[in-house]
Request: fold
Amino acid sequence: MGGTEDKGSGAKTVVRGLCFIGIPADSNSVQVECDNGKIVRIRPLHYDWKYPDLKPWKMEARGSTFSPCMESLIPPFTLGYKNRVYSPNRVLYPLKRVDWDPSGAPGSTGPGGRNTQNRGKSKYKRISWDEALDIVTSEINRVKESYGMEAILSQSDGHGESATIHASHGCHRRLLRMLGGYTLQTRNTDSWEGWYWGAKHVWGCESLGQMVPVSNCIWDIAKNTDAVLFWGCDPETTPWGFDGQLASRVSYWFTDIGLKSIYVCPDLNYGAAVHADKWVPVLPNTDAALYLAVAHVWMTEGLYDKEYVDTHAVGFEKFQAYVLGEEDGIPKDPKWAAPLCGVPSYTIRALARYWGTHTVSIAIGNGGPGIRGPYATEPARLQILLLAMQGVGKPGVHQFKMLEWGLYNKKSNIPLPPSKYIPMTIAASRGWAYTDTPPQFIPKDLIHDAILKAPIEWYGTTLSRDSVDQQFIRYTYPREGGTEIHMVWTDSPSWITCWNDTNSYIRAYQDPQVEFILAQHPWMENDCQLADLVLPSLTVLETEDIGVESLSGQFSCVFYEDQAVGPRGESKSDYEIVCALAERFGLLEEYTGGRSVKDWIEFGYENSGAAKEITFEELKEKKYYVIPQDEEKEWKERKAGLLDFYEDPEAHPLSTPSGKVEFYSERLAEHFPDDTERPPMPRWIPEGESHKESRDGERGKSYPLLVISNHPRWRVHSQHDDMTWLREIHTCKVKGPDGYYYEPLWMHPSDAEPRGIADGDVVKIYNERGAVLAGAWVTERIRPGAIYIDHGARWDPIVAGELDRGGAINTITPHNVTSKNAAGMVCSGFLAQVELAPLDELRRAYPEAFARPYKADAGLRLERVLEGGE
Amino acid sequence: MGKVMIIDITKCNGCHNCQIACKDEHVGNDWSPIASPQPLTGQFWNRVVDRVRGQVPKVKVAYEHTMCQHCDEAPCIKACTEKAIYKRPDGIVIIDPTLCKGSHNCIEACPYPGVIFFNEDLKIAQKCTFCAHLLDQGWTETRCAEVCPTGAFTFGEEDDPEIKELMVRAEVLHPEFGTKPRVYYIGLPKTFVAGCVYDPEADEVVQGARVTITRTDGAEVATAAEATGAEVATATQVTATTDEFGDFLVDGLEFGTYRVLIEKEGFTQIEVEPFRLEKDLNLGDLPMQQTKGGVS
Reply:
């Protein structure tokens, strides 16, 4: 351990995955060509390089054949990854916040104090590894003695580089458990909110509430479907970070063989830009009204599958009464919906009629109202109900996802022909383990409330793999007999620029109750600026590991991942950092399981599934092994999607209480009889106790624009914001008149002009929660009334907790969870106002913030947080 | 014989892999005497240019690409006073970084905007080399062609049958320059006219309305309109039919003056007065009034 700059010269090619999902499953496989200790180039993996006889699967439909490519379809993040490895923003040695003194008492300020109130504003100084490890061990001992181990919060979830042994998340959990325990931040099901908290109550489909199985769906759609509705789906963006670009090829193929692609989204997203035959620009988070109006047309014109509804569903009569206006006197017809969702009534009617007379499937993609909007459960549930009204499960009628193929290593999550088996390296993973949930936990989207307003309560573990019955269990923090947290240990942290009302989170982390924040991360970005100690970790190209490709949809592989280049500076991998600490506690042998990294690599290979097909020596020599494809006979025979349920709902029930699609959930009625925010039957809920984000409400007068904030195009969440070659792309950053590269804000000309905003102007987006600066892109790619800014831009506080220059829109997203009893987060479909930013005024008022060292290529630089500017 | 590059814009998803791969190859890597390193930022030997077409909700994006065209009659070769620029037997045009003295003559002489760059640190001109240094090592395609996920880039020998087939459908940029470029484009965007027709009384769209677009400035309607599924009725007229969403979109048109007529039995026709078409145009949602006899 300890860094060496160079591993020695000599040309070599390293083969490995390079995707950014952050679990021991990978994709975006590459051939990294190195020489003289540096990366020369990063290329896609040519699967047939060492396996020239490789046979890909073939899918035939409508006289056309679709097959995987013989090279991996990597996205630009993977291709340009040198920008990350060699980023000027790398943390190269341990850093300590200058005004945080571990000998200071909790709550102490001034010299020798902990000065938690300065988090987000302080500078840092370099310290040695010895001193850093000393501080961590003594702090853990102090916290253990003062409060107990449960006072340590582990924030070790989320995305990041995928790795097995040198995992970017959760290596410290095992150590904390050995030391006596900890509190876990559980990752609320972000990007799946409406499905998990809503759709599961309609059709089961554990554990996410998205349709499962999706086996053979793409083939079935290619053969039988007339049109695909891309609803909350950008196949040209969201799959990039986790799966690569196969979804793009699928989208082009659908068009080639005559399927219509209809996109329903407020922005002309990158998939709509090149694939849409029709764009229906709906106002953000108003899709529930659109769905209800479509149902109204079907009911009044008899355009739905009555027989299926009779035999495959329960509760339809209640839904019909609501839609037709028998319940509340308001028929949910197209004329009712049009002013609410911004789609003309005649277009709604046309959509309903087309959908009701053709074979239509829906593609989702971790976007849209069914996820991070207020009351996301409502549009998500309505989508399923409408699919049910058209006989979901019958040939050509599916819900399927354009990404996360192979998630949880399940073939049932792959809509394309899979490999014979899915290779896994989980057995060797040294990061977080699913089974490791301690007695006290806090859902990620409630962390600020936990710190500032304890005790708090909520329902469910919020963990994505937990089944629906969890949602009826109430939890508290602190748990009975538990302790509040006083220390945070986070790895690859990403709260500020991705979560809910993060200005509150910043305030929570400035609270004296949080005595020590320890972060480990390769780059000085985002939450690291709140940490007291930042330990430098490595990128995966600087480590040796074992890995698999299992998410691309093309081929599955096992990789022996050689170390490409030497560690930069004094960086250690996340695993090595925790090993160093384990050693301090005399727990190294126990922590490592008595295995070296090389031992673990071989253990991973032995348990990958491929050990019977290739020897370890041969794997190392060839660098990778491609798992053979499923026999054609095998995969072709698999029933597509929910066909079994469609054909015989009694013999193949859904996992709902009735076994059928539940238009009305008796179980929700029983458990939450007074819940008007997630009622037993989905409804149009513009506002309620938890959220007032409707343009038509009171707040809409001050904040008349609806923000849509998507999965970013040029980042994977908060990763890659400093990639120089991406920042040169005009939809990635807008160069301000001050030379700063701002996060783009898309505005329609009809919204920009009255505000005096022109293309390239620096603007301020704000509501009561704070303000964020951005660079205006005046474009026809966003509908009037909506503005668009991706999440994940690096936080660059002008006033921490109030005003951000970097474009971290999540600092002003809604505070409350999806709804009272559904602890998902809300960070899209909310209200804001936009005006020209008074840059000169701001520069005068905050001279320090505007004078920080900055170079446009990679943006924020390490020197800006270093004492003396390095 | 010689190398050509064919870029099919109808297959380009705008991922920018091509632009990034070129950076990956040439920033920080020295391939002299074929190419010196590119600076970290500012040069785009293969540049993706977004073109947003139309107005809400009739909007599309086309991604165009600029790069050195490796012309057979390259003005840059003639303009170079140092004889630093030469054409290889395989057709590739190279600016020799060891001979370039930074006179800027090539940049001024090249008629294709933004494809030759000046490196302020090395004081030399730089541009796309079709990855000649890799081809010389046995690679069969350029970095940009290798990383394109959709097959939008095809690189190879102009005599190759597959390439020849593509070239038949392709065009060059600015043929009027007369430089004989070796880069071909399929699907260069032209201009569209679009709209949605609806019946306000019935509150529904009008499907099956006949839309006739007539060019009125004396020139012919471009034959590219044929490629987009519209019917070319006469030399100056294109027709289309509104679909299940009441929509029509006729692409492949050139700048000019046009008028539009929309007709359907049972409705009063819509006449759009002659207008100058200078960018992709959404005529908007057009109401069609039912005639006295009503609609059956």
User: Anything to note?
Assistant: Chain A has 28 helices and 37 strands. Chain A touches chain B through 57 residues (CB under 8 Å). The first helix of chain A runs from residue 76 to 79.
